[in-house]
Amino acid sequence: MEVWERVLIDPEAYQQDVHSYIPCTDCHGGHDVPDKHAAHEGMVRDPSIDADASCGECHPDIAPYQEQNLHFNLAGYDTKLYGRSLPENHPLIEEGESYHCNNCHATCGQCHVSQPTSVQGGLLSGHVFERTPSMSRNCTACHGSRVKNEYTGAHEGLSPDVHLRSARMVCTDCHTAGDMHGTDYLDNPHNHRYDGAQSPTCESCHEDVVGVGSGNPYHEAHGTEILSCQVCHSVAYSNCYECHLDQTDEGVPYFQLQDEEIGFYIGRNPLRSPDRPYRFVPLRHVPDFPDLFAFYGDDILNNFDALPTWTYATPHNIQRNTPQTESCESCHGNDDIFLTPDKVRPEELQANASVIVLHAPPMPEDIESLLPGIIVGGEEGAGGTETGGAAPAATPTLNPLDVPPPTSSDPLDAPPVSSDPLDAPPASSSDPLDAPPVSSDPLDTPPATPDPLDAPPSS
Amino acid sequence: MKRSLLFSVPLLLLVLIGLLAAGAMSQPPVQAALQATATPVGESMGAATEMPAASPEALPSPTYVPDQNCIDCHSNAELLQQIAEEPEVVEAPNEGSG
Q1: Are A192 and A76 contacting, i.e. CB atoms less than 8 angstroms apart?
Q2: Which run of H or of E encompasses A291?
C-alpha cells in the first residue's frame, strides 16, 4: 500500500460502524484542526497499544487482559530465550528483542482495524472495525514464512493444506477469539503457544475418526497416545538454522539466516503431558543457535543445551494421504523419517538428547492381528500420497520376518551401534534437574538396557 | 343581536374545533401508538411482557459526531497524496525468511 492509502478513511463505510460515533481525537489524541502538523501533535497512531484505556470501556471482557495475550506479550520468545540463558543475561536478551522482535507485538487494532505494524500497517477497510481479522492481511502478515507457506502450498511440490484446498477454511475457523485473545486461559496464562491444553484440536471436528473405536484400522492400531495426528497427516515443512542478529553501521537491525531446508522429522515429544500424551510428534528446527545474540554480548545463551532446538511442531499442511500413510514401512523401520542422531548437528546433540530417536520403530510382530488384511509392503491399505515431493527417502520394502527381533520390541530401548557420545552412559550428576521424571506411564518406564536418550544431558 | 349571534356561533365552533385539535396533538404520536398496541396488565401476557418494547423508530438515533477536519482530510485521497510524506526507507539487509 502507498503511504497515503494506509490512512485513507472510507467515510461512507465507516459511518456504518458504531465506532464512528466516537470522535477521532478521543482515541487518537491530536487536534481537530485543518493544519496537518497541528492536527497530529500528540497523536497516537495505534491507541490500542493501551487496550484497556482505549477499548476496555466497551470490551471489558477482552481488553483488560491484553498483557496476558501471547500475541501482545510475546511470552513465547522469552520462554525459549530465557530458558537457554541464565538470569544475568536476560537484560541483554531484552535489548536484542527490542530491536528484532518487539515490532511483532499485535494490538487490538493491528488485527481488527489495520494490518500489523510489522508490515507497515495500512487500514483494512477504510477504518471500519473488522470483527474477524483477515487471514491474508492480518494472520499471515506475521505468520508468513511457516504457516502461510505451508498452508497455501507455497513450497515447491507440496499441496495446500486440505482444510484450505477442500474447505477454504481460514485461520479463524479453527483458532477461536478466546484463544487468540488469551481469554480462554485467564486462570493459567500461557507462556508459549503450546502451553496448556491443545487448542484447537483435530478432535474438535474429527472426533468420530480418532483412536480406538473409530473404525479406522490405522487409528485403532495407533490409539491416541502414541502419535500426534500430524505424524501421519503432515508433510514436509521448513526448518531454519542459525539466525544471526546484527545491526548495520547506521543502527538498522537485521538478521541473516544461515540455512533453511524443507524436511519432515519425527521425534520424541518434548512437551509430553496429559494434554499432549503423544510419544512421537513432528519436530521442527528453530533458528536459535548459541551465537544468536552475539551482537549484543558474548555467550548470552549460556544455557543453550537446556532446551531442544528441534521443537514440538504442528505443521499447517495437513493431508489425508501423505508419504507416511503410503505403507507401514513408510515409518516402521524407516530411519529416514525419524530424527536420528545423524540428522542433528554435532554441537546440538546435547540440547536435543531428549527428542532424538535412535532408530525407527520396527514393524510390530503382531501386525497381522492389528491390521487384518493389510499386506505389509504397502499395496493394500496404503492411502497413497496426494502430495508429491514431500516423501521421505524411499526405503526398501521391509519384511519384518527377515529382521531378527530386537531384545526389546521398543527400538528406543535398543542400544545403537555407534561411537556417538550420546550413546555413552549418562554422566552421573548430582543436579536434581537431571533426575528422570517420575511417571506412572508405562512408556516412561526405564528400559532394562539403559537408553542414553532417556538420560538428561550431563550438567 | 341576531347579527352578533350569526358571528359568535361559528366563532365558538372554530374555538371548539381548535381546542379538540390541540388536545389530540398534546399526546405524542409514539405514546399514542404504544397505547394503541398496549395490552392490559393481567389479561393474557405475563409480567415479563407487561411493558411493551418501543419500536426502533421511537428510539433516538445516535448522533454522528466526527472530528470533521480529521475526516475531511483522511477521506480525501487526492489531498492525502499531495501532503503525504514518504518515510525514509531504511532497507534492512535481512537474509532468509523471517
Answers
A1: yes
A2: none
Phi/psi of residue A77, nearest 5 degrees: -60, -50
Residue B3 lies in a domain: yes
Check residues A139 and A370 and name the one with the higher pLDDT: A139
User: Which residue ranges make up each domain of chain A?
Assistant: 67-107+143-395
Give the total number of structural domains in chain B. 1
CA distance B25 to chain A (A): 33
Residues from chain A that touch B94, judged by Cβ atoms under 8 A, are 254-256
Residue A391 is which amino acid? A
Task: Report the alpha-carbon distance of residue A443 to residue A277 in Å, rounded.
Answer: 10
CA A261, A218, A212, A206 torsion-angle sign: positive
Contact B83 A260 (CB under 8 A): no
pLDDT digit string, tens, across residues B48-73: 334 445 455 555 455 556 799 999 99
Please write the tens of the pLDDT for every residue from A240-255.
999 999 999 999 999 9
Q: Please provide residue A262's backbone torsions phi and psi, each rounded to the nearest 5 degrees.
A: -105, 125
Q: Which of A203, A300, A193, A188 is nearest to A244 (CA)?
A: A300
* A395 and A306 Cβ atoms separated by less than 8 Å: no
Residues of A in contact with B75 (CB under 8 A): 8-11
Q: What range does the domain containing B14 cover?
A: 1-30
Structural domain contains residue B25? yes
3-state helix/strand/coil string of B55-75? CHHHCCCCCCCCCHHHHHHHC
Burial class for B93, CB neighbours closer than 10 Å (0-12, 13-18, 19+): exposed
Strand partners for A280: A227, A268
Distance, C-alpha B15 to centroid of its chain: 34
Q: Reduce the DSSP state of residue A114 to 3 states and report it.
A: strand
- The confidence score (pLDDT) of residue A105 equals 87
Beta bridge partners of A254: A246
